[in-house]
Amino acid sequence: MTTTTPSRELNALDRCDRCGAQAYVRAVLASTGGELLFCAHHARDVEPKLRPQTSVWHDESSRLHEKPKVDIND
Fold first, then answer.
1. N- to C-terminal Cα distance for the chain?
2. By CB distance 3.0 to 4.6 Å, which of 32, 43, 50, 64 could disulfide with 25?
């Protein structure tokens, strides 16, 4: 399995294919090149079975814990 970084980051318009929440994980299937998007919850749920079948597992779920930058001049 090869993991590469996709050409763009996931954003708020990318939605989980299972529940419609914001997607934080992109899985690209090795067999077809098809792309699946998951929220962090559903990615953890499917990862053990799905990850071995992927060519890319791009996980941005660490962004869930980022603190927004605050400018004290605003």
1. 46
2. 43
Residues 39, 24 contacting (CB under 8 angstroms): yes
Residues contacting 42, CB < 8 A, separation 6+: 16, 18, 19
Question: Cβ(9)–Cβ(29) under 8 Å?
Answer: no
The model's pTM is 0.78
The residue assigned the tokens 């098809």 is: 34
Residue 74 located in a structural domain: no
Domain that includes residue 50, residue range: 23-61
The Cα 1–Cα 67 span in angstroms is 32
Phi, psi of 54 (to 5 degrees): -105, 155
Q: What amino acid is encoded at 68 in this protein?
A: P
Question: What total of structural domains would you count in the chain?
Answer: 1
